[in-house]
């Protein structure tokens, strides 16, 4: 009886050690399959591929499938199979270099993709959709690595973290993308305001407001810039990037009084955000000198 009791205790311990793990990965599989609905063919192989990707970076199968499920939400945009696996791998890597939890990193990357379509690179959506599955995966890896390298460079050269910068960027990235600012320039502007002591949410709202006011000529923001000889539109009628506008403005206000700069900032950014706009303008101006004209980049040139 004692012998059988000991065997039973060992079996109970084995069940307690394995069943919860099996349940967790089972739930992760269900979640992943839910978002990959309609792509049952090859689903088991894709699950194994994503689990293997997770293992390479020291993640459990549950964590890897959880990350894959998050990226699978973009399958209608990025494509199935290899494309989802590639996006999952990039998301895991982004989490590791940013210090974010994997799911949070996935969310940040997805938000940035939704606003800027950076994973398409220089391709249009139609051109991307005409690629093969493997070509899509290669495109996602190449563009994601390039963007992560740019973001990491800005982080290395500033006191701002990737966590902080991407939080700020996701407040205004859509507007900045439409205006033609690159992700590197968005990151540089975000890092500048963070270093100046601005809260992430307020910094992002301030930049979003600036884009909106210039684009809609709110309170004569665009008109004032035009009167100063600073173009706000390109030849084709599209809005110039904020980086270009700020470059010209910093040169135009180099010898202006603080009062004049304040009035300009209030017109462009509004009363609630003009101080943040002034901080941004100061960083553009500080990089200029008689011997080194502005290059259109902030201090954190990527």
Provide a descriptive summary of the structure in words:
By secondary structure, this protein is mainly α. Helices cover 72% and strands 0% of the residues. The protein is built from 15 helices and no strands. It has helices at 2-35, 43-56, 61-72, 75-78, 82-98, 102-116, 125-129, 133-156, 162-179, 183-195, 200-216, 221-227, 242-252, 258-269, 274-286. Helix 6 runs parallel beside helix 9 (162-179) and helix 13 crosses helix 15. The longest helix is centred in the first third of the chain and has 34 residues, at 2-35. The relative contact order is 0.07. Mean pLDDT is 84; it is low at 286-302.
Could you give a short description of this structure?
The protein is mainly α and about 300 residues long.
Give a quick set of tags describing it.
302 residues; disordered C terminus
Furnish the topology, listing elements before pairings.
Elements: H1 2-35, H2 43-56, H3 61-72, H4 75-78, H5 82-98, H6 102-116, H7 125-129, H8 133-156, H9 162-179, H10 183-195, H11 200-216, H12 221-227, H13 242-252, H14 258-269, H15 274-286
Shape descriptor: elongated
Q: Would you identify the regions where 5 or more consecutive residues have pLDDT less than 50?
A: 286-302
Structural class: mainly alpha
Secondary-structure element pattern, one letter each:
HHHHHHHHHHHHHHH
Strand content: under 5%
Return Rg in Å: 24 Å
Helix content: over 70%
Quick check: average pLDDT?
84
Terminal CA distance reads 73 Å
Question: What's the total number of strands?
Answer: 0
Number of H- or I-type helical stretches: 15
What is the quaternary state of this protein?
single chain
Biggest sheet architecture = none
């Amino acid at each position: 009886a004692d012998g059988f009791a000991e065997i039973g205790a060992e079996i109970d311990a084995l069940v307690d050690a394995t069943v919860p793990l099996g349940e967790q990965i089972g739930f992760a599989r269900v979640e992943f399959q839910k978002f990959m609905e309609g792509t049952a063919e090859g689903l088991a192989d894709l699950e194994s591929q994503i689990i293997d990707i997770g293992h390479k970076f020291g993640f459990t199968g549950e964590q890897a499938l959880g990350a894959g499920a998050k990226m699978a939400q973009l399958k209608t945009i990025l494509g199935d199979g290899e494309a989802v696996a590639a996006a999952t791998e990039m998301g895991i890597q982004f989490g590791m270099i940013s210090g974010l939890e994997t799911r949070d990193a996935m969310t940040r990357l997805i938000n940035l993709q939704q606003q800027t379509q950076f994973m398409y690179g220089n391709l249009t959506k139609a051109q991307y959709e005409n690629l093969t599955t493997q070509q899509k995966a290669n495109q996602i890896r190449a563009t994601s690595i390039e963007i992560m390298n740019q973001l990491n460079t800005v982080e290395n050269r500033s006191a701002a973290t990737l966590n902080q910068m991407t939080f700020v960027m996701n407040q205004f990235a859509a507007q900045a993308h439409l205006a033609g600012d690159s992700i590197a320039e968005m990151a540089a502007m975000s890092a500048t305001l963070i270093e100046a002591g601005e809260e992430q949410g307020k910094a992002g709202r301030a930049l979003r407001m600036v884009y909106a006011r210039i684009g809609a000529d709110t309170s004569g923001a665009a008109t004032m810039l035009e009167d100063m000889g600073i173009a706000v539109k390109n030849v084709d009628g599209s809005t110039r990037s904020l980086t270009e506008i700020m470059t010209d403005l910093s040169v135009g206000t180099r010898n202006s009084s603080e009062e004049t700069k304040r009035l300009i900032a209030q017109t462009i950014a509004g009363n609630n955000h003009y101080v943040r706009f002034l901080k941004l303008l100061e960083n553009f101006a500080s990089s200029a000198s008689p011997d080194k004209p502005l290059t259109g980049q902030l201090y954190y040139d990527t």
